[in-house]
Specification:
This protein is α+β, with helices and mostly antiparallel strands and 429 residues long. It folds into two domains: 222 residues, no CATH class; 151 residues, no CATH class. Helix content is 35%, strand content 32%. It contains 13 helices and 17 strands. An eleven-stranded mixed beta sheet has the order 3-4-5-6-7-2-10-14-13-12-11, with helices on both faces. A two-stranded antiparallel ribbon has the order 1-15. Strand 12 and strand 13 form a beta hairpin.
Length: 429
């Protein structure tokens, strides 16, 4: 009789390294007081003492900021890449990083025109006097962005993207696995890397401690360090008045990597996982995975998707704006990762100080997915059992021949024995 087992139970005996940590993070870098029209008006009228606030006051700031960025590029002899539409920016970074000789510094600067939130001036008429006056409103426009691709001594490769128009919002993208690799190198701990992870490590316990130590405070220090080095659109007086950059979470990936001891069987194992778990997108299953009550009023579509990119299948489970992805990474490891695109899905704020709460939700979702998954049989153990039966066995000095299932005579023997055994009364040997 075959007893269903959880995937987590099956993996317990076939995983030689387990690493749980933050993967990619995409962060919004912004000045909180300048995200609404009233804040922009207050910046120019109350802080800078202008009688009227209009977008005409923003243009000199933008020109000065772009000029400082261009001077920074010339001063440090940085290559400039004009990104084409649809071009993979990370691929450019990987290519240029191969020839980058420094442990820390800006690798290159990319330029692209992208849509951004901006402020515009509208002409309005006073309802009392009928005289026109300027009025600042929030809008969108195609604006030049500067991508500063750099390498940090602690965090490894990352990029910081600046919008060149007021209020000069930016985006910070980093990778927790690259942070872990840098720390292993600094502590002289030998490891073997995956494309985006660690395949083996001489000190797995220390590796997990490093991953656990990636905190909101360390990410904030990374930003402050590079903002001090790079051109800043806001003067020292602006920053002292409270117009300083803060960080919120746009997207965070929390991954669980389980390196298998049998890579060849890992692919077969994962494909079996997919076949047996096509119903994971049902609301009752999603409730177990995310530990959230789901009703008819819950927004979003609960579903399971099986995607095939090349020859590598992946399992996707959705809850609101959050997704769990599971796939066989580089034919060596089972990767389970939860991507949170909106922290409000879990009633948590977006500010970076909420990272500890989010990582707890992400890691628990990964573990619950493994516990919810079921297999009707274990293809890894079945392979071992097959080999034991197929080959000869020796017990107490007596040797018994194996049943070679590929042999036609063995098939004929089984065809003869099975009807006889089926015809015997129940309970007879």
């Amino acid at each position: 009789m075959m007893i269903s087992q959880t995937v987590a139970e099956l993996l317990a005996d076939h995983v030689r390294l387990t690493v749980e940590g933050i993967d990619r993070m995409y962060l919004n870098v912004y000045v909180p007081r300048l995200q609404c029209a009233y804040g922009a008006v207050s910046f120019f009228r109350d802080h800078r003492g202008q009688p009227l606030a209009s977008s005409a006051l923003m243009s000199p700031m933008s020109r000065r900021f772009v000029a400082e960025l261009d001077r920074f590029i010339v001063r440090h002899h940085l290559p400039v890449v004009l990104f084409r539409k649809g071009q993979r920016k990370d691929a450019v970074m990987v290519e240029r990083l191969r020839d980058f000789p420094l442990k820390e510094g800006v690798v290159f600067v990319g330029k692209a025109q992208e849509k951004a939130a901006v402020f515009r001036t509208e002409k309005r008429n006073s309802p009392h006097s009928g005289r026109p006056y300027p009025w600042i409103v929030k809008s969108t426009a195609m604006v030049n962005h500067y991508y500063l691709y750099a390498v940090d001594d602690d965090f490894g490769p990352f990029f910081l993207k600046f919008c060149t128009y007021f209020p000069y919002n930016a985006k910070l993208c980093l990778n927790g696995h690259e942070y872990a690799k840098r720390q292993l190198e600094r502590q002289a701990i030998a490891y073997q890397a995956l494309d985006n992870g660690v395949l083996s490590c001489a000190d797995p316990q220390r590796l997990q401690q490093i991953c656990d130590g990636l905190s909101a405070e360390k990410i904030d220090r990374l930003l402050r360090k590079w903002l001090h080095f790079l051109p800043n659109p806001f003067t020292a007086a602006d920053q002292n008045a409270g117009f300083r950059y803060d960080i919120s979470i746009l997207q965070a990936e929390f991954s669980l990597t389980q390196v298998l001891d049998r890579p060849v069987h890992g692919r077969l194992f994962f494909e079996q996982v997919i076949r047996e778990n096509l119903d994971l997108g049902r609301p009752d299953e999603v409730q177990l995975i995310f530990d959230r009550r789901i009703t008819r009023r819950t927004p979003g579509r609960m579903r399971t998707r099986i995607l095939t990119q090349g020859v590598t299948p992946s399992l996707h489970v959705y809850y609101k704006n959050t997704r769990i992805k599971q796939y066989h990474k580089e034919q060596r490891a089972l990767r389970t990762e939860t991507t949170i695109n909106n922290t409000y899905d879990f009633a948590i704020g977006k500010r970076l100080h909420n990272l500890a709460k989010l990582r707890d939700i992400g890691f628990r979702a990964n573990r619950r997915l493994l516990n919810v998954e079921r297999l009707s049989y274990d293809c890894i153990l079945a392979e071992e059992t097959f080999q034991r039966i197929n080959g000869p066995v020796e017990r107490a000095g007596q040797r018994a021949s194996g049943l070679r299932f590929a042999d036609p005579r063995i098939h004929a023997l089984w065809h003869a024995l099975i009807p006889i055994r089926a015809s015997m009364p129940y309970g007879m040997p």
